[in-house]
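Project standup — Tuesday

K.O.: blocked on the structure for the chain from last sprint. Re-posting the sequence here as requested.
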Amino acid sequence: MSNTSPSRARGTTHRQNGKPVSVDLDSLPVTITDIERAAELLEGVIERTPVAHSRALSQRLGSEVFFKCENLQRAGSFKVRGAYVRMAKLSEEEKKRGVVAASAGNHAQGVALAADRLGIKARIYMPLGAALPKITATRDHGAEVELYGVTVDEALAEAKRYAEETGAVFVHPFDNEDIIAGQGTIGLEILEQVPDVDTVIVGVGGGGLLAGLSAAIRAKEQELGKKIKIIGVQAEHAAAYPLSLAADALVPLKKVSTIADGIAVGRPGQMPFSIIKELVDDVATVSEDDIARALIFLMERNKLVVEPAGSVPVAALMNGKLKEEYGDLGTVVCVLSGGNIDPMLMLKVIQRGLSAAGRYMTIKMMLSDRPGELATISRIISENDANVTGVDHTRVGGSLSMGDVSITIDMETKGVEHCRQVISALEDEGFKPIIVY
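H.V.: unblocked you, prediction finished:
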């Protein structure tokens, strides 16, 4: 952690959407002084998470790529940083009243762990569909958990009602200066651990992490004598920031749908937005398949278990769009923001990721109900070196004519080109396979 004295007033100029932007850093809601003081508060409380070099992704990108492994942080994500700073600064009278928060997982565990360290009573509202491992982990840290509502927004409203009714201090997941300052300590660590960094890529939900990290890095650029690209990443079906930045105003989404539940936020935080719009170069988006592929890549090639929200920076590198837009990204640091993935979700994401990478394929086709048809299909698949893992053979159904059979085949394949080879071989024999996924 940095223990340097507070920095004097300074400004920064960087390019945003291709245009130079000048910013008085001391005019922002969170300054480098706030972040450095947050770092002092966190000494001995959190882990100084490691930075891991990815040889596989470096070779693929043509630049050096490192991962800031907040998936190895206490409570499994970066959230404990901001939660602890926020709660450590409460008055003794506020601490006696206790705290309340709402979350589907990471913020819940961060608040619960911080409350346990500080001896504060914590009540956490979680939606009914929250993953059981996250509920259990939150309770194991000593917090009282109440399941309420179907969505996080409903749980959030109930947490605020409870705060008003009881006087408990509401701990917002991202729209608070102490929360943002705590998350910003990651930026200080990155600059210390990878001093030659040229580009930092961060997943974005409400924006607390991106806001704090960008405030820290922009304040240190003068000392480093270089400009650093800062790029946020959102899931394309939960991307409120690109719309809001384009409108220069908060634009809430009507619907949010993504496997990256840690960044499934429909409305940016007002305070993070006010910082991000001034300091961040760009906010990109990635697809669900991009996220699934990245998660598989991190497990297979880097031996890292990361939740979908934590894998989005890697997804943004792997889909190639950032390199197309910016060219050489130089030395890159991706923040792997968390590792709290539900095993049931992991199964689904792995299957989707394998399918997106052409490593797993399910096809469906119609056959004539006569001997030898299935044997012919099996022969073709075997000759093309794919491995059948499941077959569903159905003679009955509203869409089936008399004498027809519907067959669905699951198989292991070796990549996108191999999938095309198998499909082509079946078509050459007169079959009409349809790829289900």
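K.O.: great, moving the ticket to review. DSSP finds 17 helices and 16 strands in the chain. Confidence is low (pLDDT under 50) at residues 1-9.
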